[in-house]
Amino acid sequence: MEDTNSEISTVEEGTTLLLVDDDGPFVRRLGRAMESRGFTVDIAETVADGLAKASTTPPDYAVIDMRLGDGNGLDVIEAIRKAREDTRMIVLTGYGNIATAVNAVKLGAIDYLAKPADADEIFAALTRKPGERVEMPENPMSADRVRWEHIQRVYEMCDRNVSETARRLNMHRRTLQRILAKRAPR
């Protein structure tokens, strides 16, 4: 989580940011990096804590991990959106896939970043102006990644029901569970 730019962009003083991630060391480093950019940072390491903070003091901005120890970060996005319409939220996850990115955007997130993402990438995503284009990635997805994305899309369409997803993909349920438990291929 190093800053690559010698000159750091900042936000208006008093701008609040909620970070929801169960990786304690990562979220604290990110919190310090965002404080140096002018944010007033609040940290939650569980869905329950994120939901509580979202309902009591909805933030101006939020960075939310998709998979947390006690549930799904999409629940926090939904709660923030209900409490405050104008919060700019991004989803940050090590299990990136198109289907969950679409769900996150439908619920109100403005962007979706795969881990590892550094503070500069996260800040840029949070502060990007509406309609501003994102740079194209240097490396396209591998065939393994495309397959994994398809499985994740069907899994999301089946409301995360493993048995139904396995039936639709004509795959053994245990094989599907092993695939779902792994990180996305590069």
UniProtKB/TrEMBL annotation:
Which biological processes are named by the entry's GO terms? regulation of DNA-templated transcription
PROSITE patterns attached to this UniProt entry: RESPONSE_REGULATORY (PS50110)
Name the lineage.
Bacteria, Pseudomonadati, Pseudomonadota, Alphaproteobacteria, Hyphomicrobiales
Q: What is the official name of this protein in its record? A: ActR/PrrA/RegA family redox response regulator transcription factor
Q: Which residues form the Response regulatory domain?
A: 16-130
Q: Coiled-coil annotation: which residues?
A: none
The molecular function terms in GO held by this entry are: phosphorelay response regulator activity; transcription cis-regulatory region binding
**Keyword rRNA-binding: yes or no?**
no
Which residues belong to the signal peptide in this entry? none
Q: What GO cellular component is one of the record's annotations?
A: cytosol
Per UniProt, the keywords (alphabetical) are: DNA-binding, Phosphoprotein, Transcription, Transcription regulation, Two-component regulatory system
List the source organism: Pseudohoeflea suaedae
Q: Name one Pfam family in it.
A: Response_reg
Metal-binding keyword on record: no
4-aspartylphosphate-modified residues are where? 65
The record ties this protein, via Gene3D superfamilies, to: 3.40.50.2300, Homeodomain-like (1.10.10.60)
